Amino acid sequence: MAGKMSDASSSTIGGAERGESVVYDCRRRKSSCGYCKSGSRGSITHGLWADNLTVDDYQDLLDRGWRRSGCYLYKPEMERTCCPSYTIRLKASDFVPSKDQLRVFRRFQRFLDGELEQDNPVENTEASSASKNCSYVLNGDSHSVEKNSLSFKNKENEEGRFILHLSDQVDDAISLCSEKGDLPRNIQFPRASVKRVSHVKKKLLVQGSKDLVYSCNVAFQLSASIRRAQVGEMKDDNLSSSASNTAETGFVPKIIAEKLVNYLSQIDELSGFSIKACNGHINFYSDKGEASFSSPKDAERATISQETDKARSKDSRMEKKSKCSSQKKRKFEIRLKRSSFDPVEYALYRRYQLHVHNDTPERISEASYRNFLVDTPLNFVPSTGDGTVPPCGFGSFHQQYLIDGKLVAVGVVDILPRCLSSKYLFWDPDYAFLSLGKYSALQEINWVKQNQTYCASLQYYYLGYYIHNCGKMRYKATYRPSELLCPLRYTWVPFDAAKPLLDQKSYVVLSDFSLQNKESVPLQEVPNDMQLKQDDDFLEEPNDSIIDEDEDDEITEAYSYSSDDDLDPESSGLASSEKEDGDVTNILMDIDDSRVRYKDIRQAIPPSGRSYLENLLLRYKRVVGKELSERIVYTLR
């Protein structure tokens, strides 16, 4: 038997030993899907268990569609799984923040400067968790909001949450319209924003509008987005022709609003309101007279907080600045530490899972937390000071976000030779109004930019998986310009080129289509008379901070998958040249603590066992690729 071959499985950076990668093939797994919630075991992945993993090998595995949960590596079998998951990345130096992303950054800074107050804290009890299925009813002349027996002490905050609920319902109606074919599927939908209609605005409207409480102008934005998409498809880029075409196809604000109202009118949760389309606006009328709060003063304050009256909003901001001018500025710091168990982090994770994901206490344990977010197979590589490794080194890290010394968020990341890979983020529910998910993504992108000075190869920010038909994944595409990994040839395709293809079919061989020469038209906001002027006031924005959801529903189940070894051994996501290469002789194996090539032990294996083993090796080679199969140590258990 051949001796040890450590040179074949280890690598170096700038003279620093990286170690070797050793994996066990868990083979194909089927499980229920946390994304489509179909109830069937439609999620199909291939799994590996890594005893050790070099940062080079994990980087290359990422670029073949793999991800990790603790020491478990997994890759979706793209043409078989119910929700194909495409690896998405962004070149940090090319990143252009959107208006919304800039607003998140400015709002956070205003909070640190003492110009914004903290939102009402979430009740600190494991028995209560925020339910997504809210029931809102109109009781007499005031709103009574029930949310799993959680009562909101502040009426302004109560109405703010209700407005967010209405905005979500409009978003759901937009998605449903698209699925039913009433709206095109090849555009990026803007988020709906429902606003309270001020008393001043009502006086300018037609008679009978006194019962009008809320309004939404998203139909104008949808119409503009469709028009821009048509402009991009026209060779002569003639705007007037495009506008005419939009009218001809029925995608004008008035018609779009009527379609959305048709869907919204079927929602039982909005039974306390009459919903009507008026000249492109979606209006919500109280069925029992104008909704008001417990006193005229409360109603006036709610109106001012929404800034529907320019004069009053200006006075409100002046008053707010005056009150905050004497407040002490908050201290903010970010600490990067190597992955390890921290009781304070675990307590924050537990609170996050209870209040944000509605987990039950018995589902959250220290062991599951360690398996998911602490354990790592990555071999740490210290800095070499020669421009090949950043000062923190390569490996798995926890990025702590602290405000006045209090831990408010933790980002779990892997820092690799070519990227920072964002794995998970959990945060304090009391700080949801700061959109910490979005803010942390901006910080991680900025970290990559800063560390390119120390490590030239560090160029990209990986956002995990992107699932096109999953609504909560759409935020990832807003970090532009992003790329998706082709599931067959493992080349990178611009998202703007891939999107029209994914609108038609969930699994697409992206590299088969050459759309790089087609220029995309940037999204812009279309002003109109009902759209409130947007500034930095966090009360006017949804607390949309779901930047961290890509791992949660899928990966926490990784260890309870059931094996389906009787399935067809052919694996997915393989280039034709790899499928035709059935040679497994050069696969590196662990035999009695020795590193040997399969060809060196093949003759020593009985023919009956040889056939079975070669089938396993062939399947393994197809999912990791020829190069990695000859570099990573394959172990048998």
Write the layout of secondary structure elements.
Blueprint: H1 6-9, E1 10-13, E2 16-20, E3 22-31, E4 43-52, H2 55-62, E5 67-69, E6 72-76, E7 86-91, H3 99-112, E8 135-139, E9 142-146, H4 155-179, E10 194-196, H5 199-204, E11 212-216, H6 218-233, H7 239-248, H8 253-264, E12 273-278, E13 281-286, H9 296-306, H10 310-324, E14 332-338, H11 343-355, H12 366-374, E15 395-403, E16 406-415, E17 419-427, H13 436-451, E18 460-466, E19 482-485, E20 492-494, H14 495-504, H15 552-555, E21 562-563, H16 576-580, E22 588-591, E23 594-597, H17 598-601, H18 607-624, H19 626-629, E24 633-635
Parallel strand pairs: 3-24, 17-18, 22-24
Antiparallel strand pairs: 1-2, 3-4, 3-21, 4-6, 5-6, 7-18, 7-19, 8-9, 10-11, 11-13, 12-13, 14-15, 15-16, 16-17, 19-20, 22-23
Helix pairs in contact: 4-8, 6-7, 6-8
Biased composition (Basic and acidic residues): 297-322
Catalytic activity: an N-terminal L-alpha-aminoacyl-[protein] + L-arginyl-tRNA(Arg) = an N-terminal L-arginyl-L-aminoacyl-[protein] + tRNA(Arg) + H(+)
Domain N-end aminoacyl transferase N-terminal: 31-101
